[in-house]
Specification:
The structure is a homodimer of 460-residue chains. With 460 residues, chain A is α+β, with helices and mostly antiparallel strands. Helix content of chain A is 20%, strand content 34%. Chain A is built from eleven helices and 24 strands. In chain A, the strands form four sheets. In chain A, strands 6, 7, 8, 9, 10, 11 and 12 form a seven-stranded mixed β-sheet that branches. In chain A, strands 18, 19, 20, 21, 22, 23 and 24 form a seven-stranded mixed β-sheet that branches. The two termini of chain A are 34 Å apart. The N terminus of chain A is likely disordered. At the A-B interface, strand 10 and helix 8 of A face strand 10 and helix 8 of B.
Chain lengths: 460, 460
């Protein structure tokens, strides 16, 4: 048992600095190394001689294939790209427990090879199906039993949620939060944190990983029967407006049924055809020993890495990984409309999306794509006192190498006139929370931003 | 303008007999003929010489292909079957309008070649995308403008819903109800009916078609802001229990979050692999001049028909059509549990389902499949005074030839002990209604039964 973890767990008002310090300490306690290797030198991975597709020798984990996409929305387009095909549904699970009546979450300081700082705060369990069924012959996944055995916990939230449709073919993971009343010993890489601590940690750059952010997005700002009341009552200003927006159903600019109808109409008229192609026959993409990339160097490349670690289920491995060419932006424009804070949501079509369209933030700028990007200037030239949140957040370090998005919330003055254009809708946070309870509505970039919203802390 | 339609529209309490008479009159007013023809003789359809797949010369409408399915749920199985591939999203739309404050629905007496009685009550608009974009060069789809132009109507319900996963590959249609305040002239094949009239018509065999039933399932028994109050207050007994069940959220045996979690868990662990195969290389299936069918004659066959009609958008056409080998059963067991009526719902995996599993009725007996069928004896040997609904209903007559399902609701005595086995859950009607608002939750067989529930009529 780590003294660091124990001390922090009992420190009710531990500041963000303590969480940073603890993660830093865990980073130093382990030995990690990640280095790029040629794609042909990835142990246990095979390049199919006919298709050029990359796949694991066992046929499990994931593969990298080619995709041809023909879409009619938002404008007619045909394009080709590599895609990560990971049909397995994994588990992103956070174990919760009440300490003196307050819910705490068992967070893990976990190394992922693609993280800019290697170690970030991860869910209690973050495991592909191949991981947790031990396909690679590694060690047991810690705390998995609390998610698999309903006698040892009760479910607070449990939903299949999608991941980046620009890079993954229909990938989804089970996002689950369970509460136990058992005594749980925290392993030295794990630490019990309150929601308030996590919300503060989300203000820091690259501290809370993507998997944690998507799971936390299930916790509504209104609190609720299973969550208890909000940690601290809002002290006016933006925090109070957030809570009011979270409570607002059918008080939005669009009614709840109108939002469903808006999305149904778009799904019924937008068309997307997705066809897998051999990776070695993708127009506009080329391959050399080190990478698969576009002729013009834009968007992303697929590279190979070799990982050495002493803290993972297995000590070392090789894998392909996606390296986007630059930092992206994910941002919500928010505005008080009819007395309630609204979020400008975008219906996005992406090649790997499970159900035609998903709702994303106002701006989701995938590097090298989407030119011009509507509303980008609101974020690039935001007036500082209108910025309600700004942080750099990492995308999943198990599949992406050093891929960061600037996450921003920018509030428009209530007096500005901005009607939602085609493909966009103004929604209250309550309407967003409601859709979040169901599959295939909010995309991972939107969910990550929702997780950053903090109503329990008047300083925001 | 038809006198028949006009008279009926003004007869507030028109009995079921009047609706039957009107549909019968429309049937006589037109000339229809349907005859079986060899698959090779289907004008405008092509048998692919390599695959044996059937497709329209234009590449539109639908195709018949082969499927190989490997599933792990409810038990491990591998099987092969033909499947109808219709990726287009069509419109099933009902136009509503208030007459003296009461909502009426513009229903169509429509011929479909596979209907046992040729003409049934259909939605105002029932059109594939090829139909309504006039791919076949036919005439305009009547009343389509009310569904496409939001200035001419407001949306009451609007959702993508699936169709038979045992026969269709991921087929979905837009189920939409809109209300207009314009004066709308009813063409002679159309008639304004109240919800009470439709509910009574649903007690008759093969009078209300599948497309109408799935659209009507969106109207909750509780009424609501856009629907107005229930037509008549329930007069106790089963009707009152239905309304109470429709109002019950989070009062079910399982909480709302527990139901979502139950389904997420099943989707995360059940596995299905679906692979299209050439139709002429399906193990266990053979083909002769007249049909594609199983060696043992079970399940269904694909045949060809030639249709002559004077009332459709086009006067005559040929098409392949699916003919199941016998009548099926779709039935809900219901029971008062903890003082509220519950429905025993089954999570079903079928080859064409869009998202792994959908919720079906307690028993859904596809002819020739599913042996033995759990709970079948409750319907085959139901005590008459426990049967709350029984009717023969047709599946969609544009794709199925004479395919009927006995639709039944059977109430268990509250004193009977029946725990939901693996893959089943007891849910209140309110919980079912809530899931019905979203995509990909309730299957078409469940929705058809929900539409038959009648709380507005004490005689039920």
């Amino acid at each position: 048992m780590s003294t660091g973890a124990r001390t922090l767990a009992s420190a009710r008002d531990a500041a963000e600095a303590d969480v940073v310090a603890w993660v830093g300490q865990r980073r130093k306690a382990h030995r990690f190394s990640v280095r790029q290797v040629p794609l042909d030198a990835l142990e246990d991975w095979r390049v199919d001689p006919e298709t050029g597709n990359l796949r694991h020798a066992t046929g499990r984990f994931f593969s990298v294939e080619g995709l041809r996409v023909r879409a009619s929305y938002p404008a007619a387009a045909i394009f080709h790209q590599p895609i990560v095909n990971q049909p397995e549904i994994g588990i992103l699970g956070i174990l919760a427990k009440r300490f003196a009546g307050e819910l705490r979450f068992l967070m893990q300081a976990k190394m992922e090879p693609g993280n800019v700082n290697l170690v970030q705060l991860s869910p209690t369990v973050q495991a592909t199906r191949s991981n947790y069924t031990q396909a690679h012959g590694g060690s047991r996944v810690r705390y998995l039993e609390y998610f698999q055995d309903r006698r040892r916990s009760r479910v607070l939230a449990d939903q299949l949620q999608s991941e980046q449709g620009a890079f993954f073919l229909r990938k989804r993971n089970r996002n689950i939060i369970v509460e136990t009343s058992e005594d749980v010993a925290a392993h030295e890489d794990f630490c019990w944190l309150t929601l308030a601590q996590l919300k503060r940690a989300l203000k820091a750059d690259n501290l809370v990983n993507m998997d944690t952010r998507t799971v936390l997005s299930a916790i509504p700002l209104t609190g609720g029967a299973q969550w208890g009341p909000a940690t601290r009552p809002p002290a006016g200003g933006f925090a109070a407006a957030l809570v009011e927006s979270a409570r607002a159903r059918n008080r939005g600019e669009l009614g709840d049924e109108e939002i469903l109808s808006w999305l149904t109409e778009l799904k019924s008229t937008a068309q997307i055809e997705v066809q897998t192609l051999p990776l070695n026959r993708l127009p506009g993409w080329k391959r050399d020993a080190l990478s698969i990339r576009r002729d013009d160097g834009r968007y992303f490349e697929v590279i190979g890495i070799s990982v050495e670690a002493d803290s993972r289920e297995v000590g070392g491995w090789c894998q392909p990984i996606v390296r986007p060419c630059e930092t992206g932006i994910a941002g919500f424009l928010v505005q008080e409309r009819r007395g309630v804070l609204h979020f400008l949501v975008q219906a996005r079509m992406e090649p790997g999306i499970f159900d035609i369209l998903e709702l994303g933030p106002t701006v989701q700028h995938v590097p090298g794509m989407d030119n011009p990007v509507p509303f980008l200037e609101y974020f690039e030239r935001a007036v500082p006192d209108r910025v309600r949140h700004a942080s750099l957040q990492s995308e999943e370090g198990g599949r992406f190498y050093h891929y960061q998005n600037r996450n921003m919330i920018v509030e428009l003055p209530a007096s500005d006139s901005l009607e939602a254009p085609f493909g966009y809708a103004w929604m209250t946070l309550g309407q967003i929370h409601e859709l979040l309870r169901y599959n295939n509505y909010l995309n991972v970039e939107a969910r990550g931003l929702i997780a950053c919203l903090n109503a329990g802390d008047a300083r925001q």
